[in-house]
Write a structure and sequence with these properties.
The chain is an alpha/beta fold and 775 residues long. The protein has 31 helices and 33 strands.
Length: 775
């Protein structure tokens, strides 16, 4: 006999993909965007958002505290570093929206859950779910009524602890984090998992920058970039690959504008020419705002085909080597001889790669590749920066290693103004990995953790994100704990993933707002509400601050300013400690003592983590401290003790006849899975998300006109198909054979089996699709 919850769940299955954004306020509209990024467009958008959210008082107050020293809080949005010159308005449009969204006066309280069943809420848009406001108290799912009902923190922790204790194997549990955790909570989270006996610690890096870490580790012996903002201020040439700057890391616009003013060359590489790759007006530059004076943010734009970045990089390297035959200064032969291994094999590989093949795979002409190479050889110091447009491919690791190959040719490493610079998307996602969230921990880390914390951590590798969903489907994961994020909406292959999550015995979501992952849940489910980044965290020894690490390895403190949204909220460290004590009642780890004063957690971290020595003193220095990067000092922790040239073959990224290579992406009015509106200002879209951008010739060839409804069918590696119907086609300036659309709507097209064999990441930026007029 089915329960009401079972019936509602069956109904919800029929609406697997509810509308993600809010209801549009008019008809869909497309008009190409030709204005500067940021500037008055951003100011107008922020003002409208503050008015809509009723935050005209709280918003400006938060702006004056965000990303500031001495009691300020770190923006919960992107991981771009704080300005080193003490800028007082080191903010951006998306950061303000993100903070305002967190500070809402709306509340998703027990009355909301009493009025609506899970089945009802499953039909709401994801915008409507989050728009209910802040969660206020712990809730537990009641399958007999299909409602979430209140539960005490004590009983919630006991449910988690009892279920974990009763597992046949600790590897039947998986502990996910989205990247929002501070370093202290991160350390406690991995400590809990490993004391329980598992390395099942998937995180959002498994879906985003795993390829970057693995590639840099193999090439240089470090999983991070080697440059900082001072290097960006000193470089002669910037190469920006696969990054939509104005939306993904808007504060980078300031660095690009300053680079242009001092005469640096700025080359953007992307299938789409994004607004941030053209011009900008920096909002805190009051004179430019007053005079509408814009600054260029690029000197060259190269529109590679989807997945063609590696061919461009190989072509640039080939050009450098050819130039060196007549101009020895094109290579830094002394650096190559002293610090690298594998150069001769790489030279032969470049020579053996024909220009015809490089043009075919990159989608660029030989002359364009040579122009980019000339920019590189003319520059004394170069930085190459990249984001998900490079890493979310089957060959993402090889492409990042090719970036390093190019840098090594001219000794662009270990000196000011030069080096690799990955752009991490989410605030503190890099800190999560640094502080132990890693399903493949090193023996050295585990040895130190065992010695300092007096535990016996497991040694076998755990499950990553894809592996966790696959294990859920096989019935091997019984308990799933999600610290932040929206796991169900973020992972690929929605139908498969929803079914897998629902097979769990218990799902636990630690969150600030209602989201899809609370409705796609296990047989038992808990919602545990926590403090936001903007809120005061008061513990027994006083107000606490947490630390975060940015994209360039700077670690600094973040301290909330507001009264918590509810008196029932706990901090993330307190939630973790409560679960840990319930699951490990005989643990010698002083969980409660740690929560009284986070300095105690940091003292332990200082003994476990490389680079965190004297943590409590150094994190309170102006701007915090930078974690030492050995490769920056030309110390390479590779097997050879040198930087390693890679010798990967060039992948074939040209679509089969009739197929297109589709990349998923965010709209501008979106942060990860949080959708603020149905608009995408920088791409000229209004009131529409169910769309696909296409090359105009590809549309004409298929008999498709602007705003025609189309069907999109993807073909997975295993030969299976997935589809979306009735999406509207938008002509856009992009290479032939390419298409693009928004995540998370298009996650349904990405098969879980389509993950990179190099990084285990879902291939979100290269989905093989057929697009035809709707039937």
């Amino acid at each position: 006999m089915s329960t009401l919850g079972d019936q509602a769940r069956t109904q919800a299955e029929d609406q697997l993909e509810p509308r993600v954004g809010p209801l549009p306020d008019g008809e869909p509209h497309f008009h190409p965007y030709h204005h500067p990024a940021a500037g008055w467009g951003a100011a107008k958008s922020v003002t409208k958002f503050l008015v809509r959210e009723g935050a005209l008082m709280d918003g400006p107050r938060a702006i004056m505290k965000m990303n500031h020293e001495n009691g300020g809080f770190d923006c919960p949005g992107c991981a771009w570093p704080d300005d080193t010159k003490g800028l007082k308005l080191d903010i951006c449009e998306n950061g303000i929206k993100h903070v305002t969204w967190e500070m809402t006066h709306k509340r998703a309280d027990r009355e909301l859950f009493a009025r609506h069943t899970v089945g009802e809420m499953s039909e709401w848009s994801d915008f409507k779910l989050e728009d209910q406001g802040r969660l206020t108290e712990p809730m537990v799912y009641d399958p007999d009524t299909d409602h979430y009902v209140p539960i005490t923190w004590h009983d919630a922790f006991e449910l988690v602890g009892r279920t974990l204790r009763e597992l046949d194997d600790p590897n039947q549990a998986s502990f996910y984090t989205s990247g929002r955790l501070g370093n202290e909570a991160t350390f406690l989270y991995q400590l809990m998992a490993r004391e329980l006996g598992t390395n099942n610690l998937p995180d959002c890096s498994n879906m985003c920058h795993e390829a970057s870490g693995r590639a840099l580790q193999a090439s240089l012996g470090t999983g991070k970039g080697t440059v900082d903002l001072k290097d960006w201020d000193a470089t002669d040439a910037l190469f920006i690959l696969g990054v939509n700057v104005a939306s993904n890391a808007p504060r980078m616009l300031t660095a690009l504008a300053e680079a242009f003013h001092r005469g640096a060359q700025i080359v953007h590489v992307n299938p789409l020419v994004e607004a941030g790759a053209t011009r900008t007006i920096i909002p805190h530059d009051f004179l430019d705002m007053a005079t509408f004076h814009s600054t260029r943010t690029s000197t060259m734009n190269l529109q590679v085909r989807v997945g063609g970045d590696m061919a461009l990089l190989r072509g640039m390297a080939k050009a450098v080597l050819e130039q060196a035959k007549t101009d020895p200064r094109a290579l830094d032969q002394e650096f190559i001889d002293r610090h690298t291994q594998g150069f001769q094999e790489y030279r032969e590989l470049c020579e053996a790669t024909s220009w015809d093949e490089l043009e075919r795979q990159s989608g660029l002409s030989r002359s364009d590749i040579l122009k980019a190479a000339r920019v590189y050889t003319d520059a004394d110091r170069s930085i190459v920066s990249w984001c998900l447009g490079v890493s979310q491919h089957e060959h993402g690791v090889d492409t990042v290693r090719e970036i390093v190959n190019l840098l090594l040719l001219r000794g662009n490493l270990g000196r000011e103004g030069a080096g690799p610079s990955p752009v991490r998307g989410h605030s503190n996602v890099q800190g999560n990995r640094t502080c132990g969230i890693d399903h493949r921990p090193t023996e050295e880390f585990l040895d130190r953790l065992a010695e300092v914390c007096d535990i016996d951590p497991p040694r076998e590798h755990g499950l990553d994100t894809v592996g966790t969903v696959q294990a859920m489907q096989r019935g091997e994961i019984k308990v799933f704990v999600g610290m932040g994020g929206n796991f169900a909406l973020a992972v690929p292959d929605s139908a498969y993933s929803y079914e897998a999550i629902r097979s769990c015995d218990l799902t636990v979501q630690v969150s600030t707002k209602l989201n899809r992952s609370h409705l796609v849940h296990g047989k038992q489910a808990l919602i545990l509400p926590c403090l936001g980044r903007t809120e005061k965290d008061h513990q027994r020894c006083g107000d606490q601050a947490t630390s975060v690490e940015d994209s360039m390895s700077m670690v600094h403190l973040s301290e909330g300013m507001r009264r918590p949204a509810s008196r029932h909220l706990l901090s993330e460290p307190a939630v973790i400690a409560g679960m840990a004590r319930a699951a490990l009642p005989d643990s010698a780890t002083p969980w409660e003592w740690y929560i009284e004063d986070y300095d105690r957690i940091r003292d332990t971290m200082a003994h476990v983590l490389d680079g965190f020595e004297d943590f409590n003193r150094r994190v309170r220095l102006p701007l915090g401290f930078r974690i030492k990067q050995p490769a920056r000092e030309l110390v390479f922790l590779t097997p050879s003790g040198r930087a390693e040239f890679s010798h990967a073959p060039l992948p074939d990224v040209v679509p089969e006849p009739g197929m297109l290579a589709l990349g998923t992406m965010r709209s501008h009015d979106q942060w990860n899975t949080t959708i603020y509106s149905e608009n995408d200002r920088y791409r000229g879209i209004k009131n529409l998300r169910t769309l696909v951008f296409m090359n105009e010739d590809d549309m004409r060839e298929r008999g498709i006109s602007e705003f025609d409804p189309v069907d999109i069918v993807s073909t997975a590696r295993d030969g299976t198909h997935r589809s979306l119907e009735g999406y509207l086609a938008i002509p856009y300036d992009m290479p032939r054979g390419c298409a693009a659309g928004y995540m998370p709507e298009m996650n349904v097209l990405v098969a879980l089996c389509d993950y990179s064999r190099q990084s285990d990441q879902p291939i979100m930026k290269h989905v093989n699709v057929a697009i035809t007029p709707a039937t």
